[in-house]
Design goal:
15% of the residues lie in helices and 29% in strands. By secondary structure, the protein is an alpha+beta fold. The protein binds manganese (II) ion.
């Protein structure tokens, strides 16, 4: 191995995720994460080892690189894997190509043109239905027939590390007949994964579930911040708006679909039978361990949730097939959120709304405080990794601190 990769690293030789980074002496450029380092792809290209226009590695986003197509992006990943394992490869004796991650700043990896959020975890949808509607009929009649989703806002998606301010808005106090205005009292995270599309479609075109993977470049961790009190008042009849669009965070490294291939697993059985355009073949779920931790200001980190991406009722192929069945076009760099990923156990719920059950079961924190929702000064950290046969492919983390509302 050209550089040392710690045994339990998310960024193993099996991973090779792509991102955009900068250093004090250089502008944003493309790199891959390897152990605790970043291999600088723009600098590597100077060795004339790639047979395409490597200006794509000097851009501020990966969109142009991704647009080269899977044949090329897959070959870059394979080449890097080969070079890293060959002591005599083109990377040998060139320590300047490797930058410590701790000395780099990460940027949004793609220019996100459009962002869609789904609602595809049956456990999450059931929990929310129980709390907000009817415990006996928690799922709405369409839920098992449609991968429910909505169009979110792309402009407010930020990369891990950028703090957010508590949002303000309209809420309605219990029993009141008119709303009040102020900072949200129910700030929440949503544990999600997001996928980035890597191929365009034309208006009018649809993607079949069988071909959907050709359109997916890779995945990131996704924290879809939500203000539950604002959401509750505003969402009728058109769905989420200001309760969701103030910020969402993604992890900086895009883990390719190829890297996740070994971790495919069957999804839950879907009853009743779905319409033909939503049927699929083969394993389309992914076994990715997920966790959420909260670090209160001045205190230690505490894990509050452990879940798994494999719990998803609707898979990404079905989401894309549904999204485009009406001819809606998709573009390179679009982001698609899975929806909150909850499991069956209470400890696997992917939001504070569910973990503390609408504030009725506060979480006890190590510093003696309680959490019903997220407080000012809290940092929320999400992590994810897949592991099988000694091979680990991870996402690193998406982390963000909550600052007080702007006065
Ligand atoms: Mn969401």
């Amino acid at each position: 191995m050209i550089i040392n990769i710690p045994e339990n690293s998310d960024f193993s030789i099996y991973n090779i995720p792509f991102g955009i980074f900068s250093t004090l002496d250089g502008s944003p450029r493309a790199g891959v994460a390897v152990g605790e380092y970043i291999l600088d792809l723009a600098a590597t290209a100077q060795l004339n080892v790639f047979d395409f226009d490597t200006a794509v590695f000097e851009k501020e986003t990966l969109n142009d690189f991704i647009s080269l197509g899977k044949e090329i992006t897959k070959k870059v990943r394979r080449d890097v894997q080969t070079w890293l394992q060959d002591e005599n490869s083109v990377l040998a004796g060139k320590p300047g190509l490797f930058i410590k991650q701790s000395e780099a700043q990460m940027h949004l990896p793609v220019r996100i043109g459009d962002y869609t959020d789904f609602y595809s975890s049956i456990e999450h949808a059931t929990n929310v239905g129980k709390m907000f509607r009817d415990p006996e009929n928690a799922l709405l009649p369409n839920w098992k027939h449609i991968p429910v989703g909505y169009h979110g806002r792309a402009s407010s998606i930020a990369v891990s590390g950028e703090p957010i301010h508590r949002p303000k808005g309209q809420t309605i106090p219990n029993g009141a007949d008119k709303p009040v205005f102020g900072p949200t009292q129910r700030l929440d995270f949503e544990l999600e994964m997001g996928f980035v599309t890597g191929k365009n479609t034309a208006l009018g075109e649809s993607i079949a579930t069988d071909g959907a993977e050709d359109y997916i470049f890779g995945l990131v961790l996704f924290n879809d911040w939500s203000a539950r009190d604002i959401q509750k008042w505003e969402y009728v009849p058109l769905g989420p708006f200001l309760a969701k669009n103030f910020a969402s965070h993604i992890s900086p490294w895009i883990v390719t679909l190829e890297a996740l291939e070994p971790f495919k697993v069957p999804g839950p059985s879907q009853e009743p039978e779905v319409l033909p355009y939503l049927k699929y073949h083969g394993n389309k779920n992914y076994d990715v361990n997920l966790e959420v931790a909260i670090t209160p200001e001045g205190s230690g980190e505490q894990t509050v949730c452990r879940s798994n991406f494999k719990y998803m009722y609707w898979n990404m192929a079905q989401q894309l097939a549904h999204h485009t069945v009406n001819g809606c076009n998709i573009n390179i760099g679009d982001l698609y959120g899975s929806g909150t990923i909850s499991g069956k156990d209470e400890g696997s719920y992917g939001s504070m709304l569910e973990l503390a059950w609408m504030g009725t079961k506060p979480l006890k924190m190590k510093d003696g405080s309680e959490r019903k929702f997220i407080l000012d000064g809290d940092t929320v950290i999400m992590r994810g990794y897949a592991k099988k046969d000694g091979k680990r492919v991870g996402f690193g983390e998406v982390s963000a601190k909550v600052l007080p509302a702007i006065k």
